[in-house]
Specification:
This protein is an alpha+beta fold and about 450 residues long. About 35% of the residues lie in helices and about 20% in strands. The chain folds into three domains: about 30 residues, no CATH class; about 300 residues, Bira Bifunctional Protein, Domain 2 (BirA Bifunctional Protein, domain 2), CATH 3.30.930; about 80 residues, Anticodon-binding domain (Rossmann fold). It contains 15 helices and 18 strands. The strands form four sheets. Strands 3-7-8-13-12-11-9-10 form an eight-stranded mixed sheet. Strands 15-14-16-17-18 form a five-stranded mixed sheet, with helices on both faces.
Length: about 450
Amino acid sequence: MCGIWVSTHKLPTEEKLCQGGITFTNLHTPKGTRDVLPKEVKQYSYIENQLRKNFELWNYIEVRSPTIEFVETLSTGVGSELVDAMFKFQDFDGKLLALRAEMTAPVARIVTTRMQSTPEPIRLFYVNNVFRYSQSYLKREREFCQAGVELVGCNTSEADGEILALLTSSLKQIGLNDVRIDLGHASLLRDLLNATEINEQQKTVIQSLLACRDAIGLKKLMEQNSFPSNLRDTFIELSRCRRLNDVSSVSLNGSKYDKVNEQITSLTELQKTLIDYKVEDVVFFDFSLTKKIEYYTGMVFEASVPNLGLPIGSGGRYDNFIQKFGKLKLPATGFALEIGKLLQALTAQGFKIPKNTKTKVIVTSKFRNPAIEAIKTLRESKVITSLEVTRRSLEKTIKYGKSMETDFVVSVDSSLKVPVTVYDLKADTSKKVTFKTFLRNLGGQSKIEK
């Protein structure tokens, strides 16, 4: 028996026989998932490596979490929409598990359970796949890679400014141009809506009107619900602000609005930090911007580029989230980028991933021992080398080498002490040289005796 479950329903795919006579079908990947082939893997790797280099340059250190965690852990404080999007299943002991749907909750768990004695602030980054169930795969696949950072243990404008500056720097590092960051404040909008004493449905309508920048509709709704004039004016003023420095002119009188005024002050202080980092020009204020994940308490933001139509990353401040995992009460802020969307954005801008400049060599020979000696020597000199193992003709080896973007095919005789024939596949030429000369021309050091 093969151990493969077989359906009696005939699928429109090719059938094959496995050992034992049981049939199975050639399966495609499930909806919302796909294979990533070598060319695209190189593109993904380039983006991930550039981000890693930049995160490390800013003194962030990498952490990794299990793909599978307890549902209780992953569901803490994230909101029902994200919980509903998780892939859940039951463990052998009956406990509910899930594939991680985002990385902030796993990082919060790591900090509270494994890093209690780590000095603050704690700077962490990750590059991991996450999984979300969705009926539509136009905007996002079921499995996608996130790269992000978390700055834990500090609640200052300098910390928020660092996160936004690091985001801008990281996107520039991978080659993106015309980056825009739209920034709002989760608590500012929430507290102002709560001050209106309207119901949840009306709050949703106001948020929609703000998002559409429908000033006329907003005024009409506020008048219908008898908003106090100072509150009405504040909503209108904030909805008109396009930059953080515009927010500084907004204020509300009365002790009941102290928190609102503190939040406005924090945005003004953030603007000063962004000016020092010289990134203020890419940051735009959007009073209506909120996040569906519920743990955000301060600034929230989305990064985008023209003509893509979707955010390439987002983040914000979450000061009350980590304490939900234990006794540690630590403020935090961070962001996450989607590698697939970054690749889409780079492609849309015509950016080409730099090609690998390392020399690639194929060694072919009728004599196995000197051929293996040659490839070992080349690899010791950091030259990418493969052995011709199919025993095909030299002509076919050269043809294969060209199709694989190889630089040289080296034909070795019975000993490396006699000249080898080097075929330069880019120049379409060939010549006989000693193996030591060939290696020296590549910049390597030969251990072969004359």
